[in-house]
Write a structure and sequence with these properties.
- The chain has 247 residues and is mainly beta.
- Among the domains are: 77 residues, Hepatocyte Growth Factor (3-Layer(bba) Sandwich), CATH 3.50.4.10; 78 residues, no CATH class.
- Helices cover 13% and strands 32% of the residues.
- A hairpin with a 2-residue loop joins strand 1 and strand 2.
- The radius of gyration is 21 Å and the shape is globular.
- The N terminus is likely disordered.
- This is Apple domain-containing protein.
- Keywords: Signal.
């Protein structure tokens, strides 16, 4: 007999609360993005919550008492045909709640539900104008990022794009810098530094000569799109370009 239960987990970190549904003897196949070993099932839930593109977990207990977590980038909701019987496994699916509407869920055809909004990454080559027109034609808008968790989700979606042929196909990502201290090809000059802002480490420029350099990027393209996350201090000391190419 297969049991389906909805249970409340007292998972609280700051203001983050998560709900999961559980199905015994089941596991989601073909969607594992990461496998980790932890000391108890509740730790699998936090592994999923902390992974922007994790929507469910397959959990199995090991003979030594530890637990194996398989993080899935899909769910029973999006791919019901992939939920299959698995002896010794438990399937846990992340759900959106009123207590935490930020948590996302996966939907069919590659769509993601983030709070009350749906988002999808399309790989077809389009200019900004063409992309905007396309989004409008299906009742949507080009994505705009307001909150940090939205940035994390979009960044992870972009990270899935194959960049091995960068420069060969115009729609591939040519360059990307997180500017959080993890980029090994970014140099800080004239007082530029990394600072914590709302628990997020980011590049700080004082507007008085501080700047950073990156490897050169070829802008000799028919069209390209540049995206950046910038928080301006008030007042702005000295208006200056966000990104420049000196030759």
């Amino acid at each position: 007999m297969k049991w389906l239960s909805l249970f409340w987990l007292p998972l609280v970190a700051g203001c983050k609360i998560a709900n999961f549904t559980k199905e015994d003897g089941m596991a989601l196949k073909n969607h594992v993005i990461e496998t980790v070993t932890v000391f108890q099932p509740v730790a699998c839930h936090w592994q999923c919550v902390d992974s922007p593109l994790c929507f469910s977990v397959n959990i199995r207990k090991l003979p030594n008492g530890w637990v194996t977590c398989e993080l899935n980038n899909s769910s029973k909701t999006a791919d019901p045909q992939d939920l299959q019987p698995s002896i010794g496994s438990q399937y846990h699916q992340l759900t959106v709640s009123r207590e935490n509407p930020v948590l996302q869920s996966s939907l069919p055809d590659g769509w993601l539900m983030v709070g009350s909004k749906r988002i999808k990454l399309f790989h077809e080559r389009k200019t900004w104008g063409q992309a905007k027109k396309f989004c409008n034609s299906i009742g949507g808008e080009l994505v705009s990022i307001i909150r940090a968790y939205e940035n994390d989700i979009v960044a992870n979606l972009i990270g899935q794009v194959d960049t091995s042929a960068a420069g060969e196909k115009p729609y591939h990502i040519i360059a990307r810098w997180l500017l959080d201290g993890t980029d090994n090809d970014v140099s800080l000059l004239n007082g530029a530094r990394y600072e914590e802002d709302n628990e997020e480490k980011s590049l700080y420029l004082d507007g008085a000569g501080a700047h950073a350099t990156t490897p050169a990027v070829n802008f000799d393209k028919t069209s390209f799109t540049m995206a950046s996350w910038v928080k301006l201090r008030t007042p702005v000391n000295d208006p200056s370009p966000i990104y420049s190419d000196w030759k």
